Amino acid sequence: MTVVSDPVSAVGSSDLAIVAVGTPTRRDGTADLSDLARACRGIARGVKLASHYVLVVIRSTVLPGTTSRLIRRTLERVSRKKAGRDFGLVVFPEFLREGMAVHDTIHPSRIVIGELDRRSGNALERFLKEFYGRDLPPLIRVNMATAEMIKCVSNAFLATKVSFINETANLCERLDNVDVDCVADGMGYDHRIGRDFLNAGPGFGGSCLPKDLKTLVKGAKHFRVRLRVAEAALATNELQPLRLIRVVHELVGNPRGKKVAVLGLSFKPSTSDMRVAPSVKIIRALVKTGMRVKVYDPKATENAKSLFGDTVAYASNVRDCLEQADCCLILTEWGEFSALTAALFVQTMKKPVVVDGRRVLKSLSLDPRIVYRALGIGRQVSDAIASRNCTMRREHPNRSTGPRHLI
Length: 407
Ligand code: UGA
Hints:
The protein is an alpha/beta fold. The protein has 15 helices and eleven strands.
């Protein structure tokens, strides 16, 4: 592999030119394609000078129609060559999860090739067949706009699933002895539904789901189509973090001067990324109400410092974070949190009040010394239900590989 900083020389010595730059959302909800356009202009300059057939591969997430209009035009204008005749063009969307990119590249759920013409599609398929060999995943070939659409609505559907289970969780909370994880397990066995993305929490975040959903809703309006389900998923996601703030306030009484320990800041575990993390909204609101907030995250503390500055205190471990706190709020399901013991909360906190936004410490509900409230679990969870949840969860084929037994 050779690393260069000049796109022209990179394209000159390659058969494939892959564009994977970010497409962030502007304030008005439209996609900012300036980086993408810049990258395409650079590649087009290389295509212009190349004496061989170069296949331009668009990996960035864009709205349907973007490649055949904006990208194709830019490439043809700058290269002074014709797409489909002098160079190839395909949309090759990625479905990689942050923190799992290498795994998802090697074991993709599917490959979608959106081709301008047969020759472009054949060129990418040949390359992928060589790369994956006998492990070639399901592969479909469609036109470019269809591939773009598949990527956009896949993220929109995942986001909708999360909002759906979050609203279900909010209802479960109002019922006695109903645990949203049991409900999700029961739904998930139906292969038409599936268990993935049915883990309720403070809302979906990150640099993809919220952004792609907003861009899709806005883009559809341009065609005078309202995506009401996607709009609702977004609206639910705006409100979901507020529920946890309400629970904290309810449990601590007057929030002014009370100390809250927040465990988990990143938008999901195994990453330090705090972009659009629900924790940001929640912490800012808690600070606004006069609470003294101390935070801990295994990886995201440095990012948190640039977001919150000295408005919150930073702990170097869980014990330090819990010290003398009036309430503990768990926002990200880091593995180390599920190993915490009831004794730790009782010994270190001023009052052992735990608000569990991810239900990682359900066993605390059985400890009479602790006030435990979990998102998605009704207040009067009986011992029988609390313990059965754990064993049922291990039984599910898509879940962890723990001991498999039923009570
Ligand atoms: C997402 C998609 O999952 C990828 O398939 C896609 O390729 C990627 O966006 C992208 O467009 O590049 P990622 O942003 O890494 O991947 O995040 P997810 O793993 O999808 O999680 C998104 C958010 O949903 C997180 O805040 C997570 O905590 C939340 N979530 C997810 C839940 O609250 N419950 C769930 O059951 C699942």
